[in-house]
Amino acid sequence: MAIHYYLSAFPMEALIASELEPQQFGSYMATGSKKGSDELIIFAEIKGECTPEFDWDYAKEKCVPHTSGDPKHSVYLSVYRVLEYIPLKSIGSIYLTTRDGRSLELTSDAAAAYPSSRDYYMYQELCPIKPLIVSRLDPKKFAVYMTDETNHVYTPKLIFANLKTPNFEDPENTGHTGGFLINKKGHFLNCISSISGKDGKANKTFDRSHVESFSFQTIEDAVFIGDGKDLLIYPMPNIDEIKKIDYDWGRSALLY
Questions:
Q1: CB within 8 A of 155, min separation 6: which ones?
Q2: Domains in the chain, number
Q3: pTM attached to this predicted model
Q4: Mean pLDDT score of the chain
């Protein structure tokens, strides 16, 4: 059986070797072998032996079929500073896995359009840090800023998604933004104010624990991976596209 290598990005960062195909791996990670787990998962398939920081020989030694012939589900190679060391060119498809173990594959598209002229953006950072951020920077500039080593605080690479924001004038028809933002209207507007104007900050932390209520239905345009030089863009299909691609995944993700 072939060995697959997966970068687990959310809810925990890890490098995992497995003999499971991506769809099987997503199901295993989300629900567990004994169906005792229940959580959203985001992971990416990567090329093996892409960097010397990890013990690939250990993976080959340990990631072998069980005596029953069943595939090896997981061999952890690292749970620390994984994204930092993996080259962007070695990252393949990203998979969004629902709580019941269904995975939607997203492929990177260098030509994908993303919003570049808005007054503000809402970003959910996913790996290796997880704050919810209001920013005046578009996705490319945000990735550059957050990975700039000349900043007092930075991260070498970042996985994040831009989220839908509420229409406070019509909250009943604002779409899947979650009641979290609606309930914190005052704080949200204050964050927008703090990044507005020439003297405004580039970014404002909206919440440090919102990641617990993060859902796939709140992703607006894409999931992004940036290192300050390059930006991988994984466009999020719209609802009509998802119904054609994987109707059951959309229902599981509560998109409709």
A1: 84, 128, 129, 146, 147
A2: 2
A3: 0.93
A4: 91
The answer as to whether 115 is a domain residue is: no
Q: What is the pLDDT of residues 127-177, one digit of tens each?
A: 999 999 999 999 999 999 999 999 999 999 999 999 998 776 665 655 555
- Which residues does residue 94 pair with via DSSP β-bridges, in sequence order? 44, 106
Strands (E), 2-144: 4-10, 14-18, 41-46, 75-78, 91-97, 103-106, 121-127, 132-135
Q: Report the percent of the chain where pLDDT is more than 90.
A: 78
Nearest CA to 249 out of 36, 96, 106 is that of 96
The set of residues, in sequence order, having a beta carbon less than 8 Å from that of 226 and lying 6+ positions away, is: 139, 140, 142, 143, 144, 146, 147, 157, 158, 160, 232
Segments forming the whole domain that contains residue 40:
4-106
In a domain, 244, yes or no: no
